[in-house]
Write a structure and sequence with these properties.
The chain is α+β, with helices and mostly antiparallel strands. The protein is globular, with a radius of gyration of 18 Å. The strands form two sheets. It has a five-stranded antiparallel beta sheet with strand order 8-7-6-5-9, with no helix packed on it. Helices cover 22% and strands 21% of the residues. Helix 2 packs across helix 4.
Length: 228
């Protein structure tokens, strides 16, 4: 349970954003491992600044303050480790195997959103065909608090080495698929090729040029495009 967690925990019924609150705490000197956990977010943000739907009591919305002593050039390792930590915790407590699409790192506050019992009707129409939950409509075999604590412990256990790239590669289902890459400034079709030794996704653009992505978003395309 969260009560067994050995770093400071800040619990809320409702927040605008757990990341926003965690950033404030970090600036005030919050120690490594400080957790912000809320039952609902009114202004949660996902990839590329998109709204992250956070219905009350239906998911796990947590942020962790990390002080791993890494140079910013190695920040991708934290993103990789956050994704692996979620998979390990869900496997241990729920018995479910998850695949990895991507993670999100903002500053050195890692924000994690995991839909636990949300149903399609809890989301806007445009998300209902692409969003998912571990146990739609519930009940879940594990409490939100216990799973949040397990995710945080898994991630802190990986710090500061963040040596889990092989597991990340094994779980990541994106390589081999045709994708749309959105960087915030452009959107283009490409084929996902591999995960490199820095945890970046390697994609092949039209004309054969390859790129290593360290930020942005990829979406699996329903059918291949002509990428030469």
């Amino acid at each position: 349970a969260v009560g067994e967690y050995d770093a400071p925990i800040h619990l809320y019924d409702k927040l605008e954003s757990s990341n926003r609150t965690a950033k404030t705490l970090a600036l005030e000197g919050a120690p490594h491992g400080t957790m912000v956990l809320t039952s609902q977010q009114t202004a949660g943000r996902g990839r590329l600044g998109r709204r992250f739907e956070s219905p009350a009591g239906k998911g796990i919305y947590l942020s962790l303050v990390l002080r791993p002593g890494l140079p910013m050039t190695e920040a991708q390792a934290v993103t990789v480790s956050a994704a692996v930590a979620v998979c390990r915790a869900v496997k241990r407590l729920c018995g479910l195997d998850l695949d990895i699409e991507s993670g999100q790192l903002e500053w050195l506050v890692v924000g994690i959103g995991l839909n636990l019992t949300s149903r399609p009707e809890d989301w806007p129409e445009e998300l209902r065909s692409i969003a998912g939950s571990l146990y739609p409509g519930g009940p879940a075999p594990v409490s939100r608090a216990a799973l949040a604590g397990a995710i945080a412990r898994e991630l802190l256990g990986l710090c500061p080495a963040f040596d889990c790239l092989d597991e990340y590669r094994a779980r990541c289902f994106v390589p081999g698929h045709w994708v749309t890459v959105c960087t915030g400034t452009e959107s283009y079709a490409a084929k996902a090729v591999a995960i490199d030794d820095a945890g970046r996704l390697i994609v092949q653009r039209e004309g054969g040029r390859t790129e290593a992505l360290c930020h942005g978003e990829v979406s699996i395309r329903p059918s291949p495009l002509a990428v030469k």
